[in-house]
């Protein structure tokens, strides 16, 4: 039932200290480049969007500029929508889906809503295809007001400086097989806890806010995405990743309690997408298209029910 012993870093039952974090950092080679993959696509949008620099990260001599894009100066009479990708850097379609939305569909919402898009919140993790940041923190559990996770603090400040009212926040994620083979065992080892294996669902699903459930909103997104990719079924216990499925392809989390990114705006409509890129029925293009379909469906529903 436990394979904490198999994780190569740390002592079972003992939380990591700085020595173990350093071992973990050394074990995370750079596999792709933010400056080559992401930044040029952002800069290519300068003729259509205002590009904002909202933070600078520096980790062991490696520097990263954090970028967001907005569709012009905010119009006070319009609501605001936030789209975030790459909170978990390894979840590739979160980053590429946000960029594809900007490149192909975002102009459709000009004059309807103030768009603010942060395509790659965690560039160090993007480069290492990892869930955590340099300090071995999970950004998607660190969006508290006093967060000392640098990626989170920068995004919190950006959101505060672009006061809404926020109508919508959609946060683009993936659930991958590596969640079970690497990231959950690493979490157990880091925290000195026992690893209990779970089941990775085959298909797309959404995470709603149990403190502010919006079932019709989630259903509209599911309806749009299933035209692109398949929706995750529940396991034999009626659950998805350990949480009861409350509607087709939807589970609930208390977003603020878990300090999730989707909690930071206080928007009426919030969701976290979860694409499954490891399915034999999926391709990178399908995954990116599914994220774009989710963003557009979320925007369309929110605007229709503002």
Automatic annotation (TrEMBL):
InterPro entries in UniProt: AstE_AspA_cat (IPR055438), Peptidase_M14 (IPR000834)
Keyword Hydrolase in record: yes
Peptidase M14 domain segment(s): 30-306
Keywords per UniProt: Hydrolase, Metal-binding, Zinc
Pfam families (UniProt xref): AstE_AspA_cat
Entry-linked Gene3D superfamilies: Zn peptidases
Example of a GO MF term: hydrolase activity, acting on ester bonds
Source organism superkingdom: Bacteria
Record-stated family: Belongs to the peptidase M14 family.
The protein, known as: Peptidase
Protein's organism: Allopontixanthobacter sediminis
């Amino acid at each position: 039932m436990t394979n904490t012993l198999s994780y190569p870093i740390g002592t079972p039952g003992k939380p990591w200290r700085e020595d173990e974090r350093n071992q973990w950092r050394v074990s995370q080679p750079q596999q792709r480049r933010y400056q080559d993959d992401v930044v040029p696509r952002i800069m290519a949008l300068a003729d259509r969007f205002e590009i904002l620099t909202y933070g600078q990260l520096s980790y062991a001599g490696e520097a990263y500029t954090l970028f967001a894009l907005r569709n012009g100066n905010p119009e006070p009479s319009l609501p605001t929508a936030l789209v975030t990708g790459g909170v978990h850097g390894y979840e590739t379609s979160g980053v590429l889906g946000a960029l594809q939305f900007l490149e192909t569909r975002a102009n459709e919402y000009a004059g309807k809503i103030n768009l603010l898009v942060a395509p790659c919140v965690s560039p160090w993790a993007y480069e290492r295809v990892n869930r955590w940041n340099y300090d071995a923190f999970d950004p998607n559990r660190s969006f508290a007001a006093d967060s000392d996770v640098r990626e989170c603090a920068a995004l919190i400040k950006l959101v505060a400086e672009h006061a809404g009212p926020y109508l919508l926040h959609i946060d683009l994620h993936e659930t991958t097989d590596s969640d079970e083979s690497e990231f959950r065992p690493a979490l157990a080892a880091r925290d000195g806890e026992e690893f209990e294996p779970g089941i990775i669902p085959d298909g797309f699903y959404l995470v709603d806010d149990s403190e502010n459930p919006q079932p019709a909103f989630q259903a509209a997104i599911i309806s749009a995405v299933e035209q692109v990719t398949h929706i995750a079924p529940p396991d034999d216990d009626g659950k998805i990743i350990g949480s009861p499925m409350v509607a087709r392809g939807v589970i609930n989390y208390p977003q603020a309690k878990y300090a999730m990114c989707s909690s930071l705006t206080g928007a009426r409509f919030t969701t976290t997408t979860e694409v499954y890129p490891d399915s034999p029925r999926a391709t990178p293009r399908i995954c990116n298209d599914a994220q774009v379909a989710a963003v557009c469906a979320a925007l369309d529903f929110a605007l229709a029910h503002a």
